[in-house]
Amino acid sequence: MARRNRMPPWHEHVRLANGRDLLIRPIRPEDAGPMQAAFTLLEPDEIRQRFLHPMKELSRQQAEQLTRPDPRRDFALVAAEPLPPGEALVGAVARISIHDDGREAEFAILVSHYINGMGLGRHLMRRLVRWAKGRKVQRVYGHVLESNLPMQALAASLGFRREATPEAGLVRVVLDLPPPKPKAASLPSLPSETDGAKT
């Protein structure tokens, strides 16, 4: 996957290994309709891996909730066709939400099977972690089905550790983020030889 051109913050063009061009950008309210349309193209196992339970459709209300993240605590990216929001087909969604305590944030990623296996999930995960670091989050985690071995392998390759959960069939992957480095205090300037000298 190659990147090209400089874009506004959190916007970037990428070219996948199959030659397809995508635009990664923050999710927009206009994406609700295309997300509903893309949902019908997903396989049942893809839906279960993302939502952790079967779903027959993505309702308008659910789509609007997904496309209107709270800027104070949520961040969501889509990988879509390089067309205006509302017209572009959405092929992947990555979302992270900070808890009320400000210390932990939960992520979720869905990459369509049409563009899966080309490094896009890794790329999106790194963007979510980068955003979390900027918000001084201490821990990023996600719940993954035990059967979703590719997602578990991806998380492990990025430094996530695996934890057991009380819920059968689920595992929790956790990444502890290093605390932000304190800014180095500037040293006071030394007086010059002429400072305080009488003229």
From TrEMBL:
Keywords: Transferase. It holds the Pfam family Acetyltransf_3. One of its GO terms (molecular function) is acyltransferase activity, transferring groups other than amino-acyl groups. InterPro entries: Acyl_CoA_acyltransferase (IPR016181), GNAT_dom (IPR000182). Residues 183-192 have a biased composition (Low complexity). Residues 22-180 form the N-acetyltransferase domain. It comes from the Bacteria. Residues 178-199 are annotated as: Disordered. This is RimJ/RimL family protein N-acetyltransferase. It comes from Thermomonas haemolytica.
